[in-house]
Design brief:
single chain, mainly alpha, Arc Repressor Mutant, subunit A
Length: 142
Amino acid sequence: MAQQRARRVEARDYRLLADFRYALRRFLRFSEAAARQAGLTPQQHQLLLAIKGFPGGLQPTVGEIAERLGVRHHSAVELAQRLEEAGLVARAHDEQDRRRVRLRLMPEAEVRLARLSASHLHELRHLRPVLAELVEAIGADS
């Protein structure tokens, strides 16, 4: 693998990185507040979204959700268990491999997630010009 020559980091680069991080944090703060307003913790919202948005429309396993959320398997198990107790998620053993547990959303979770996702898309549309400008500016020096 060829080593790329690192270019010197300029004051403009620090500003771009700081602005990009600020835009991301603004979105994350919005997301966390919206989840709480919907009666969910931010982690619960993330788990519901990871289930609904899992590639191929498949029912993901707890392990696959743990990977998507960047948490340990046992943390995903506990989170799924709490959501199951709240009537938002159903857990079932995989028919081919009984060791695997698959997750699916219950109707109330679908309703809450649809509302949250609509508000998140609205917020992203609002942030899009800022994010696009920052990404473009960062990429301009490649």
